[in-house]
Write a structure and sequence with these properties.
single chain; 8 strands; alpha+beta; 10 helices; eight-stranded antiparallel beta sheet
Length: 242
């Protein structure tokens, strides 16, 4: 009898804890993103509000926040809840993401050939960019790559400029969690920020979520890694000149 009472008590506690966790769900998702329109780039803001098991687009804000017509008008709450519940387990160190691989270099060298006309027009000396040995790039530490990307050397694109892409989850208790790119190159972990802490989130885990909610084509303003390698090479060449 005592065993049955203990089991029922534990079961009640487990159910109560689960119910308590369920109450503090994400109630709103704000997505800030870029898109091209006419002759410029628009900074847009999509708002989704929870309606039971679905997040619905806040339609009255559509025009004043410059949203594109092809956005999903609803997001399945299952994917949001699942993503939020697993984020803490998907922490990632940034160092490995900065290391340049042989595949990165191969893509970079293909890029030099395919876009040679454009690069020449931009006054980049292709021969110099081809002259840096593969091993030099492979031997760079993640710290050296990081320093190269943040240096003021002659870059193809400003991959470390202001980043306005982000997602903000607002919970029913009023707390918020923000996700944003740490540096806007593909493969680099995203930053998760809350009131109490910040950490890096696995890039693949984040972009799988973006696919699940139908935002893959609207929320991927990241420079390719061959462009990242290009900017690292720019840094190395500038050091040689100095």
């Amino acid at each position: 009898m005592k065993g049955s009472i203990l089991f029922i008590s534990l079961l009640f506690v487990a159910i109560s804890v689960h119910a308590g966790n369920r109450e503090n769900k994400v109630k709103r998702v704000d997505i800030y993103y870029y898109h091209e329109g006419g002759y410029g780039i628009y900074h847009s803001h999509a708002i989704y509000k929870r309606n039971k098991n679905v997040f619905e687009f806040h339609l009255k804000d559509w025009r004043k926040t410059n949203n594109v017509k092809s956005l999903p008008i609803a997001i399945d709450a299952f994917f949001v809840d699942k993503f939020v519940s697993e984020m803490d387990k998907m922490r990632k160190d940034t160092c490995g993401a900065y290391r340049i691989t042989q595949k990165d270099i191969e893509n970079y060298r293909d890029y030099l050939i395919e876009d040679s006309s454009y690069l020449s027009m931009m006054n980049f000396d292709i021969r110099k960019y081809q002259s840096v040995p593969d091993q030099t790039l492979l031997d760079m530490t993640c710290g050296e790559v990081y320093e190269a990307l943040y240096s003021p050397s002659n870059k193809l694109y400003g991959g470390t400029g202001p980043l306005e892409e982000r997602i903000v989850f607002t919970f029913s208790d009023g707390s918020t969690v923000e996700l944003r790119p740490y540096i806007n190159y593909s493969g680099i972990p995203w930053v998760v920020k809350s009131k109490n802490e910040s950490y890096y989130l696995d890039y693949s885990f984040f972009y799988n979520f973006i696919k699940q909610i139908g935002w893959e084509g609207h929320f991927a303003w990241q420079y390719d890694r061959n462009e990242m390698v290009f900017n690292v090479v720019s840094y190395l060449l500038s050091k040689q000149e100095n």
